[in-house]
Amino acid sequence: MAGILAYMKRKTMLGLMLSAVMMAGTGGCGAGKYGGGDCDAPEFVLTYAENQPEDYPTTQGAYRFAQLVYERTGGKVEIQVSPGGVLGDEQSTIEQMQFGGIDFARVSLSSLSDFIPKMNVLQMPYLYTDADHMWQVLEGEIGDEFLDSLDGFGLVALSWYDAGARNFYSAKKPVERLEDVKGMRVRVQESELMKAVVEALGASAVPMPYDEVYSALETGSIDAAENNWPSYDSMRHYEVAPYYTVDEHTRVPEMQLVSEATWKKLPSEYHEIIRECARESAVYERRLWEERIHEAEERVRKAGCQVAELSAREKDRFREAMLSIYGEYCGEYMDIIEEIIAVGR
Q: pTM score > 0.90 for this model?
């Protein structure tokens, strides 16, 4: 971790001073950045866009990825991570990657699906029975098929990242049955899919910026919201919405990507190194995410949050309410949906 922190400090100093495009480097050789390379000056200096803060698991995964690539290419490939959305939001990042303006990024499938509708399949509500089910899908043939589906979009997929599961939380009462949701005003992301999910449960969807949720819950302009444990904790929403229901209505995996334009410029001998480092960083990110979830849950429980879990029967009722949404968003991909469900049986 000390090596990563040192790497992060150097990235912060240099990241915004260098060009967002690939550059060929020249210069004399020395001991190398980590003591293992033969040359101080890299052949390629590349950008990595990350919209989360520096201490977030996905950002830490990005730093680990960059460090591994640097070390295993002998300092020839240097990847500069820019956290906090410095290089733009996820939508603009994807657009820039398509013409080589940004080299690497980690993006949510919710953003990627605007460009590649098939990605909606992997984020459908109540699709996975649990985290193990999702990872069996992503790390098997189905996941490989989706990684390959970026061909023709100017992007190359490298690995899957975790983003946890989203759950409902309420200001006034616990949600334990389908009937408890009906009539609620529930904040959702500015996403047509999430709006449809909430409305299918009988609630009113209220699209709202994330930073307005606390005050909206406090004043009663909304009754509930939905998010993962770390977000519920970090934004202190438990102070104004103390009823948290573990229903895991969505698990939205994320991808590490590289611009196809960048990929073609890199020597082929670096391709497998980069893929290997991306997979290793993904394992690291998942471990950090699991730790963050446990820490967040422990804190909010100690703060007095009341946690409920849907029974298996009740979860089936919530899932059955989603049938119309599956048809609307994934009608032509229902065969893949069936394959995914079968993996979890």
A: no
